[in-house]
User: Which sequence fits this backbone?
């Protein structure tokens, strides 16, 4: 199982990005997916997750700005990031937990991790 996060970059505050988490060797529709981020000097934190049934959850500071959704035909889970703020600057990575029907908040709750993609938001 391999996960690949992509789509990061440098943007200005208020702009948007869409991150992608693609899977190889696995059909992601059978897995709960979490998007985590880690800023310099900070702990890794869950920003959004989606269960196998499509239930989504997001961290309070990103509600209304970051949206997670699936495209099973493309075997990809996306994180749409709107109205970006400088405090959103971090390395974003996706993680998978098999058969997850709920929200799992901690990195050690997941079975696989992909390499991260850097998001930098300038003020």
Assistant:
């Amino acid at each position: 199982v391999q996960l690949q996060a992509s789509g990061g970059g440098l943007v200005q505050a208020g702009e948007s990005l869409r991150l992608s988490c693609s899977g190889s060797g696995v059909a992601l529709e059978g897995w709960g997916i979490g998007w985590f981020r880690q800023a310099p000097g900070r702990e890794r934190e869950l920003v959004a997750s989606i269960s196998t049934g499509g239930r989504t959850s997001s961290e309070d500071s990103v509600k209304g700005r970051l949206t997670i959704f699936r495209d099973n035909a493309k075997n990809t889970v996306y994180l749409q990031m709107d109205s970006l703020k400088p405090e959103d600057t971090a390395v974003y990575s996706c993680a998978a937990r098999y058969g997850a029907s709920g929200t799992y908040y901690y990195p050690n709750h997941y079975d696989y991790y992909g390499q991260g993609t850097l998001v930098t938001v300038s003020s």
User: Anything to note?
Assistant: The chain has no helices and eleven strands. The longest strand covers residues 90-98. The chain has a mean pLDDT of 94.
